[in-house]
Amino acid sequence: MAQDINKVILTCRLTREPELRRTQSGMQILNIGVAFNDRRKNGQTGEWEEIGNFADCVLFGARAESLANFLHKGSRVAIDGKLRYSSWQAKDGSKRSKLEIMVDDLVLLDPRQNEQGGAQGGYGQQAGGYAYGVGNAPQTPPQQPQYAPQPTRNPGTVYEDDIPF
Question: Does this model's pTM top 0.70?
Fold first, then answer.
């Protein structure tokens, strides 16, 4: 029997502040809501329109607690995960169901803020930069690579380094 593919990749924005909670066993659970746009052609006007879509996402474990400190309403993120369907019976007896995204990986896409609250360009933590994941930004500005001068080569000669095998 063939294996089904259950994969979700989104770039989106948080629609509310993250909600971090713990189970009785101590497992951290982070719930976030996200919004992303879809383009559709309006059948009546023939114009393209941006349609908003909303989804609930869940992260588990220590990573959930770490990300809770960096995520805020309006944060732009990239999410990689899978869909999970849940159903239950509400207290009033009605059946409820929900389709949510179980997050495997989340990448922060917003520029980091400096101490004065303003965003700065670049990729290093010292310059504000962009944070890819959590805690993996360099602690010091990257050094410029030092290149050794290359020996001059005769263009008509084939060198061992030029052979691709």
Answer: no
